[in-house]
Design brief:
Blueprint: E1 4-10, H1 17-25, E2 32-38, H2 45-55, E3 59-63, H3 70-80, E4 85-88, E5 94-95, H4 100-110, E6 114-123, E7 128-130, H5 133-136, E8 164-167, H6 168-174, H7 186-195, E9 199-211, H8 227-242, H9 244-247, H10 250-265, H11 273-290, H12 301-312, H13 315-349, H14 353-366, E10 371-378, H15 387-399, E11 404-409, E12 423-425, H16 429-437, E13 438-443, E14 458-461, H17 487-494, E15 499-502, H18 505-514, E16 520-523, H19 530-534, H20 537-546, E17 554-558, H21 575-582, E18 586-590, E19 610-612, H22 619-625, E20 628-631, H23 636-640, E21 647-650, H24 654-660, E22 674-676, H25 679-688, H26 694-707, H27 715-723
Parallel strand pairs: 1-2, 1-4, 2-3, 6-9, 10-11, 10-13, 11-12, 13-14, 14-15, 15-16, 17-18, 17-20, 18-19, 20-21, 21-22
Antiparallel strand pairs: 4-8, 5-9, 6-7, 6-8
Helix pairs in contact: 7-8, 10-11, 14-16, 15-27, 20-22
Keywords: Cell membrane, Membrane, Teichoic acid biosynthesis, Transferase
GO molecular function, one term: CDP-glycerol glycerophosphotransferase activity
GO biological process, one term: teichoic acid biosynthetic process
Length: about 725
């Protein structure tokens, strides 16, 4: 028999589900199965479950025809589980590495009905807060089991399904299942503890409970929070049915009910102001209804006062005390903030007068009406005219000529602009004016922090690549690669987005996790790749000729990514040895990352078959000219894959890179072609013909199916029609 069945419901968790599944399947323990329940999720959660099932026989996906909710979805998983124990893990949480052997040992040694494990709250800002385990059990129970009547303090642990493993036959025998509705854990977790003869506690953190910035029920206002009352009613009905066996637990259970109601009411993210009085009234009614005849242990201090006010039904007094407490907290935070602002104020007063005047001008322009025809474009921190914004600009000129497009560029990049492109120079008075007045703002990175999101303006974040390396909030776990990043500032910038353009489902999933906010995702392909899809042989010949390359030459483009954690890093790559392997007809194009653009020198004719193309403005020209791409962890591979030409992954520092910078998937296990982990291996790839053999072609086909399927030459058109012309998706 399988020891542990994981039941993982999935609904709108595509950005987190891979991490959840990986955390289970990568454990140094194999006696498990995963029942993944796609609760008719409107995102790609179901496709992710199917993908994992295709490559790991331990994963069993279940796809529901209609959404049933978390509780019923767990029941469906439970009905299909075969393990001795069941662990209900939500699709946005994840296990701690290496925890399962310890869990398994405790299960086998003590055979509990319920095993409680510790957890941490993993907040979106990378702050972790511990659970109440140490407070409830200052002295860990160790490898012993007990009944709830012997350790009633166990009730003070969080009443969730995911911090406990439950013996499957015990659930079947007791008829314990999840009820529909919100707060479904209440009517499952407390009865399970009351019915268990053998409860165990593993004093080890085993699960990360994700505290999402957006999308979580606990951060969603609405009247559905009133469903907490029905769940508690079910608990007391069960106690009435079970009679004397659990009667002694009624006071402790009642105290937990009042605590939980107060917790829900006290959370401003759940109960809107107009619903607080009726919620309190229901709390009072349930207090009177379920109060044990013998009373219950009322907590001391302020918490006890809250209990007494609920008992008396004194909403006005309760509300007044709550408002007074909140006012005191605001005053305290204001005082602290004032002290913290002293140093920034001193620094701001030292800024140049010109910058101050420009900001004042910008604020004045914000008071003027938005220009309904103005679209502002930028790319790569004003490095010029390129990438997805350029493709969208060109499509808008064709499909929406009433839109006036203006580009922002650095002064040193003006000469590289195509003829006829209207522009302003970054930092000037005109620059501040268009940023303040634009109806549409299109960028493949974020605009500066001072830019305000005006009501009626539309911010379009196009991004600039499918991610291999972790991005956004995910970088918090890799501080070496995130040095100097201000994540609070990043989120303020992300909150300005109205649209996020993605090239494939994988990118959509990762951006949802890395940049949690209330934008709309347009999963339409990458506009910059339209040109690659539509390119003709003649256009490829022109691209070669512009670089001084002949039609019969074998052209290899080498384009590595940047390493934030290694300033000044240069890859272990010897152009001369590479040129020798390519032979007389071989030509090597070398392109550095755009972060090094100020170090670039215009390339001249190829010297001994090697040409530095770092200063070339449009990387798409280089893709069209090249027969083969050699790269490491750059998003270039996803764009070049559109051309269906050979790609070689040269990853000499893969282990160090994924530890320092973090990656979203195992590139060496799922490459777009041949792989080399050192320079001699790279040379052998070309000597042996592995660069484009059958194995490489199969890998490239699978890679293209996964990442390039949406690139059909019309991505920019889809963006323009949706964003500028307001046509339906």
């Amino acid at each position: 028999m399988t020891l542990i069945s994981f039941v993982v419901p999935a609904y709108r968790v595509q950005g987190y589900l891979r991490e959840c599944l990986d955390s289970i399947l990568d454990q140094p323990f194999g006696d498990l199965e995963v029942i993944g329940v796609d609760d008719a999720s409107p995102d790609d959660s179901g496709e992710i479950l199917a993908e994992y099932a295709a490559r790991d026989a331990r994963v069993h996906p279940v796809r529901l025809a209609e959404n049933v909710g978390l509780g019923p979805a767990r029941n469906i998983g439970l009905d299909r589980a075969v393990g001795e124990y069941v662990w209900f893990v939500d699709g946005d949480d994840w296990l701690v590495p290496g925890c399962l052997p310890h869990v398994a040992d405790r299960l086998r040694d003590t055979r509990p009905d319920v095993l409680l494990v510790d957890h941490v709250r993993a907040h979106w800002n990378n702050v972790g807060t511990r659970s109440a385990m140490r407070d409830v059990f200052p002295e860990p129970p160790g490898a012993t089991t007990f009944a709830l009547r012997d350790r009633p303090e166990t009730l003070r642990l969080l009443h969730t399904a995911w911090n406990r493993l439950v013996r499957r036959e015990f659930l079947v025998e007791r008829g314990l299942r999840f009820e529909p509705g919100w707060y479904e854990d209440v009517s499952f977790s407390y009865p399970a503890l009351m019915a268990a003869d053998r409860i165990g506690v593993l004093d080890r953190v085993c699960l990360n409970y994700r505290q999402r910035r957006t999308g979580a029920i606990t951060r969603t206002r609405g009247d559905r929070h009133f469903e907490v009352f029905a769940q508690w009613h079910r608990v007391f009905r069960l106690m009435d049915r079970w009679g004397p066996a659990v009667a002694g637990l009624r006071p402790a259970i009642f105290e937990r009910m009042v605590w939980h109601h107060l917790t829900v009411l006290g959370n401003g993210d759940r109960i809107a102001p107009e619903l607080r009085a009726p919620f309190f009234a229901q709390m009072h009614a349930d207090y009177v209804r379920f109060l044990p005849p013998e009373g219950y242990p009322v907590p001391p201090g302020v918490e006890g006062l809250k209990h007494r006010l609920v008992a008396a039904g004194r909403w006005r007094t309760f509300s007044a005390l709550r408002e007074a407490h909140q006012a005191g907290e605001v005053a305290r935070r204001t005082a602290v903030g004032a002290r913290r602002r002293v140093a920034p104020v001193v620094r701001r007063t030292a800024r140049r007068a010109r910058d101050t005047a420009l900001r004042e001008y910008y604020r004045a322009e914000l008071r003027r009406p938005i220009d309904p025809t103005l679209a502002v474009y930028a790319a790569y921190w004003y490095r010029g005219y390129s990438c997805n914004p350029a493709a969208i600009y060109e499509a808008a000129r064709r499909l929406a000529p009433q839109v006036r497009g203006v580009w922002i560029v650095r002064r040193d990049r003006v000469a590289a602009l195509p003829p006829g492109v209207e522009y302003v120079i970054a930092g000037t008075r005109e620059y501040h004016r268009v940023l303040a007045r634009a109806h549409w703002l299109v960028n493949n990175v974020n605009f500066p922090d001072f830019v305000r999101k005006r009501q009626g303006s539309v911010h379009v974040q196009t991004h600039h690549g499918t991610p291999v390396k972790v991005m956004g909030l995910d970088q918090q776990r890799f501080p070496v690669g995130a040095m100097g990043m201000n994540f609070a500032g990043l989120l303020r910038r992300v909150d300005r987005w109205d649209y996020s353009i993605t090239s494939n489902s994988f990118s959509t999933q990762m951006w949802e996790r890395a940049y949690p906010a209330d934008y709309t995702t347009l999963e339409v392909g990458y506009p910059r790749n339209d040109r690659l899809v539509r390119a003709t042989p003649e256009e490829c010949r022109r691209a070669r000729a512009a670089l001084g390359l002949g039609a019969d030459e074998y052209v290899v483009l080498y384009a590595p990514t940047h390493r934030e954690h290694l300033p000044g890093w240069r890859p272990p790559f010897d152009p001369d040895r590479m040129r020798d392997v390519l032979g007389p007809a071989g030509r090597l194009l070398m392109r550095s990352h755009y972060f090094h653009d100020r170090e670039r020198h215009p390339g001249g004719p190829a010297a001994d078959g090697v040409l530095d193309v770092s200063a070339h403005d449009r990387v798409e020209d280089l893709y069209l000219a090249a027969d083969v791409l050699v790269t490491d962890y750059s998003s270039a591979m996803f764009d070049y894959g559109v051309l269906d030409r050979p790609i070689v992954v040269y990853a000499p520092d893969w282990d160090a890179y994924r530890v320092a910078r973090g990656v979203y998937f195992d590139l060496l296990a799922e490459p777009p072609g041949a792989v080399a982990v050192d320079f001699p291996g790279l040379l052998d790839v070309f000597r042996s013909g592995a660069v484009d053999d059958e194995t490489a072609r199969r890998a490239r086909a699978a890679f293209r199916d996964r990442f390039c399927a949406l690139d059909d030459g019309r991505a920019a058109e889809r963006v323009v029609r949706r964003v500028f012309l307001h046509e339906p998706a």
